[in-house]
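Researcher: Structure prediction, please.
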Amino acid sequence: MTTLQIASPHILRVWEDFAYHLLVPAMRRFWWDYTPDQVLSELLAGRMQLWVVPEKAALVTKIDQMPSKKLCTVILGGGRDAKAWCRMSADTITAWAKEQGCTEIRIIARRGWSHYLSEATELGAVFSKRLSDD
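Model: Predicted structure follows.
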């Protein structure tokens, strides 16, 4: 099983045929910062990266230059049978992030993912309160 980064010319087709259907349920589960169309726009512009485990999972990463480090964040993921791909995907994305000059990788996920991320340190919880009904 392989984790593949999707190249720009193929993002739209992979998004429509596969990734969208796995990622949108994760986006709907929480109040999320991006709409599906905004994620697609960021992917097409190269500001986010799309990863897939064929027939199993889709993930989205984003690299940010922070004041003291370059940071890669796995901001979104969805799929099935995580036990089969999570460790391998983490290793693949970590190696890629190092090649990009990142010194840290973060994963934004539900607490249930923690048993797949035993090498990671939980930094804390994120709390959110909507200020309107929009």
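Model: DSSP finds three helices and five strands in the chain.
Researcher: Thanks, that helps.
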